[in-house]
């Protein structure tokens, strides 16, 4: 909303109160419904600061008109981009269609445009949601199909503007056929993940998750819908306790035990409203005998909205049908729901009447929908399920949608109402080819998931047949880039997990393959405890089937999930098991992958020599198997090891090999990454001109490819180069640009890293207050996402700010906190760096003796892991401590060693250390 801020400034920066009052007056004059003054002021304040883009342009328009009017009074003619409301609408549309972010603020169902009646119930909910309300929980109970969900959805859309912090719709699935009622603990995990909480920070117990959820929304204005609740115990852990929160609950039961809630029983429609609903949807204006026919139809429907909608939808598309004829047909079919209570028999009659009116081919397609393990579907899935062309599937779905036998959840995606699904499954049960039908669907999901995974994975596949090719012959969605592939996986995630559960019981081999195809998605987005369970199950099933290759792959994926959850020892043990299996079955590519993963684990633990040896073994295997991408990735890992131990020239040489390999195999993404690696090395050696050139080339290539994450990283690193050269203005601009890119793509870790980088720029330009604020923002984000390495970096940055502002005691404390985190993570390179930084804080605090001990410890760790840059820094630190303690001779010796190492590394610290040596060895002045 940058342009919104520009318009505000053009209007003379009026007060929030003035804009709100003028907008209210304008809305009253045009008879536009006016929300509460407090709510309007909050929304305008949000828009002014770039938060909470309104869900409808009509909500923003009155405020725009007010500001445009004020701007014309203040400054005369306005530029077209600020005064043109059509341009504002285009801008709003673009802002409201930004890529999906990990933080989910709205998950409401689509509103029903033909919603009629229920005015009393809707107004009761709206009135109860006004400021100053006493009851914050409302239950809507009633029989299946009575319209509970439609009612709360309509109310939620009307209330959406009053709850800018979140509008969440949770399907509890108590009466969803084929699914167990939603586990409150799993629901809380999903809600917390949607709020941006990292999977690693989600507690294990139900009570702890409940407390964390309530804490996160306590001071926010959140609207929560819990749909199809079982009982009080089912929903109690999900209920927020904040005074500004509102919860709407639907249930087929009266939730008597929920004594803090205001119940709203929902009955069937009254006869007149039911007839009105039917006639509107059927597009008929009955006269004479038809009036009696309509009355009979809605009576046979039991005045149940769901049944009325189905019948009216059918007749609307058959203009030659008569209302009396439909009434006769419906009357003859009304006894077919013998398993349901009398009031619900008409639902089955409506389903049957609609079903029997379908052509035979469409009847069969409808029956197969009952075999789908998941909750929604698109034309691709239906084409695979029925072995028909994609165009035919789209036509059939559109016809079923027109007949109201399926519901459209989003454009191109459909679902069955729970009662309709039950009906379809009953029809599908006698199908002789049901198993083959489901297998076609499973193979479609498996093939497409594997194809999508090829765009996501950064590690070569170790299976001989990863189901990457189409097993069904059906048309698969095409993915032009990683963004498209990830979007498909996210949309289909629920279905894919449902297929996993189905195959776990019916087809373990397919379960193992599908789990493998989802490994990268689970690694990226978690929840990691779920990933652990799924990979563990796949490993056990593979062992039971005697499939050693699949077991090795599952163990590899399990080890990665354990690394994500901080179980480092278990990860190494599992990788060792996987390595042994790959060797036992003679699978060199899998062996290479396992060696590389083990090498990376040792690298992160600071065991550089062991890491390098494992990576070299992997490299030989990749070269022997001809897998050049694996070869390039391993060389990149070796380069990272050399860079971290200060061997910058060797690192640069390795990254140059990586660059050459990626160019030879035409891997542009790898080429761009290699340019970025080279740029980082040149930055460490102080060759800032070449570093900037390499990073700019990387950013440009990432932009051409359309890989926004890589572009953001390259821009961020380019900003760091500008900072290193003292061009703080451009550094801040570039880091701000990267920060905005990370926010747009929803990468909260990247956002936090760049907040911390920006804090460094502010610190180095003397703005310590701003630096502190930015580092604390970064620290909060790192803790929320569970990125402990970043948390330690932010603490180290805060410690430096404290040291530079003279708060040496706090600097030492923060440095120790960072050190403890690095040690706990097992990242020994950073441990050595933190030891040096803590020692610097102690030296600055006037504690050279304690600082000397810390520098000595840092030197020992740096030597253990062969990090020569940290060795040089520790030696320089010991020299400064010796000088402070009066031992100038030893200080001079230590400093000379440090300078010699700095020079061999080409490090940027060489000049400063040399200058200090000259001061140290300068003869005393004569008095």
Automatic annotation (TrEMBL):
SMART domains: TPR (SM00028). Residues 128-285 form the NB-ARC domain. Keywords: ATP-binding, Nucleotide-binding, TPR repeat. The keyword ATP-binding applies. This is ATP-binding protein. The keyword Acetylation does not apply. It holds the Pfam family NB-ARC. GO terms for molecular function: ATP binding. TPR repeats lie at residues 592-625, 632-665. It comes from the Bacteria. The lineage of its organism: Bacteria, Bacillati, Actinomycetota, Actinomycetes, Mycobacteriales. It comes from Nocardia suismassiliense. PROSITE patterns: TPR.
């Amino acid at each position: 909303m940058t342009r919104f801020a520009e318009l505000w400034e053009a209007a003379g920066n009026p007060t929030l109160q003035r804009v709100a009052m003028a907008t209210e007056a304008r809305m009253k004059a045009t008879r536009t419904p006016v929300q509460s003054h407090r709510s309007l002021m909050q929304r305008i304040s949000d828009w002014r600061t770039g938060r909470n883009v309104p869900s409808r342009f009509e909500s923003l328009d009155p405020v725009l008109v007010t500001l445009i009017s004020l701007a014309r009074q203040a400054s005369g003619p306005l530029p077209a981009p600020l005064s043109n409301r059509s341009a504002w609408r285009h801008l709003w549309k673009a802002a409201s269609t930004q890529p999906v972010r990990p933080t989910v603020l709205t998950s409401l169902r689509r509103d029903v445009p033909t919603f009629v009646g229920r005015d009393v119930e809707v107004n009761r909910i709206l009135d109860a949601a006004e400021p100053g309300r006493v009851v914050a929980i409302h239950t809507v109970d009633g029989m299946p199909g009575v319209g509970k969900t439609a009612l709360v959805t309509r109310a939620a859309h009307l209330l959406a503007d009053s709850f800018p912090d979140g509008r969440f719709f949770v399907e509890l699935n108590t009466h969803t056929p084929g699914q167990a009622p939603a586990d409150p603990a799993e629901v809380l995990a999903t809600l917390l993940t949607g709020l941006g909480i990292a999977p690693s920070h989600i507690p294990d117990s139900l009570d702890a998750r409940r407390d964390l959820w309530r804490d996160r929304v306590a001071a926010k204005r959140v609207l929560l819908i819990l749909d199809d609740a079982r009982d009080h115990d089912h929903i109690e852990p999900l209920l927020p306790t904040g005074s500004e929160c509102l919860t709407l609950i639907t249930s087929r039961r009266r939730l008597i035990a929920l004594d803090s809630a205001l119940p709203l029983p929902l009955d069937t429609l009254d006869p007149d409203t039911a007839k009105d609903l039917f006639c509107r949807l059927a597009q008929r204006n009955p006269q004479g005998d038809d009036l009696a026919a309509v009355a009979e139809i809605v009576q046979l429907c039991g005045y149940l909205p769901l049944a009325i909608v189905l019948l009216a939808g059918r007749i609307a598309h058959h203009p030659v049908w008569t209302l009396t004829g439909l009434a006769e047909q419906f009357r003859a079919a009304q006894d077919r729901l013998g398993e349901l209570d009398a009031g619900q028999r008409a639902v089955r009659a409506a389903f049957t009447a609609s079903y029997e009116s379908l052509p035979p081919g469409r009847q069969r397609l409808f029956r197969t929908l009952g075999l789908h393990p998941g909750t929604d579907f698109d034309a691709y899935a239906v084409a695979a399920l029925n072995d028909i062309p994609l165009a035919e599937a789209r036509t059939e779905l559109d016809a079923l949608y027109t007949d109201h036998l399926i519901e459209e959840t989003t454009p191109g995606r459909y679902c069955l109402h729970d009662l309709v699904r039950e009906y379809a499954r009953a029809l599908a049960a006698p199908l002789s080819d049901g198993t083959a039908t489901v297998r076609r669907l499973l193979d479609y999901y498996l093939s497409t998931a594997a194809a999508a995974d090829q765009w996501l994975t950064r590690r070569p596949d170790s299976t001989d047949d990863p189901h990457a090719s189409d097993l069904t012959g059906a048309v698969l969605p095409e993915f032009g880039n990683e963004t498209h592939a990830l979007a498909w996986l996210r949309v289909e995630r629920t279905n894919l997990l449902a297929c996993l559960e189905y195959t776990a019981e019916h087809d373990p081999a397919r379960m193992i393959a599908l789990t493998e195809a989802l490994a990268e998605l689970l690694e990226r987005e978690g929840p990691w405890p779920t990933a652990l369970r799924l990979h563990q199950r796949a490993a056990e099933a593979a062992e039971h089937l005697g499939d050693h290759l699949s077991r090795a792959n599952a163990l590899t994926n399990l080890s990665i999930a354990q690394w994500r959850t901080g179980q480092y020892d278990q990860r190494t043990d599992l990788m060792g098991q996987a390595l042994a299996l790959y060797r036992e079955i003679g699978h060199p590519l899998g062996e290479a992958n396992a060696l590389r993963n083990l090498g990376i684990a040792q690298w992160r633990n600071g065991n550089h020599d062991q890491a390098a040896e494992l990576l070299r073994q992997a490299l030989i295997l990749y070269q022997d198997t001809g897998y050049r991408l694996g070869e390039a990735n391993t060389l990149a890992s070796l380069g990272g090891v050399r860079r971290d131990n200060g061997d910058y020239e060797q690192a640069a040489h390795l990254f140059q090999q990586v660059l050459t390999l990626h160019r030879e195999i035409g891997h542009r993404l790898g080429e761009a990454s290699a340019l970025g690696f080279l740029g980082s090395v040149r930055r460490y050696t102080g060759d800032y001109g070449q570093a900037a050139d390499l990073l700019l080339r990387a950013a440009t290539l990432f932009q051409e490819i359309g890989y926004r994450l890589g572009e953001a990283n390259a821009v961020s690193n380019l900003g760091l180069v500008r900072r290193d050269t003292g061009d703080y203005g451009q550094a801040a601009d570039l880091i701000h640009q990267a920060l905005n890119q990370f926010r747009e793509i929803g990468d909260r870790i990247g956002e936090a890293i760049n907040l911390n980088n920006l804090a460094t720029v502010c610190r180095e330009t003397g703005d310590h207050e701003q630096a502190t604020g930015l580092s604390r923002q970064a620290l909060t984000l790192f803790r929320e996402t569970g990125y402990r390495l970043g948390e330690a970096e932010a603490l180290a940055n805060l410690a430096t700010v404290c040291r530079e502002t003279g708060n040496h005691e706090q600097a030492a404390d923060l440095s120790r906190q960072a050190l403890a985190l690095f040690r706990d993570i097992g990242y020994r390179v950073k441990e050595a760096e933190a030891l040096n930084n803590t020692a610097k804080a102690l030296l600055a605090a006037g504690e050279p003796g304690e600082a000397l001990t810390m520098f000595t410890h840092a030197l020992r760790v740096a030597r253990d892991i062969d990090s020569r840059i940290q060795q040089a820094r520790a030696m320089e630190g010991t020299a400064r401590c010796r000088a402070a303690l009066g031992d100038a001779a030893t200080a001079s010796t230590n400093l000379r060693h440090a300078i010699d190492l700095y020079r061999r590394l080409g490090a940027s610290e060489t000049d400063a250390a040399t200058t200090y040596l000259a001061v140290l060895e300068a003869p005393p002045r004569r008095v």
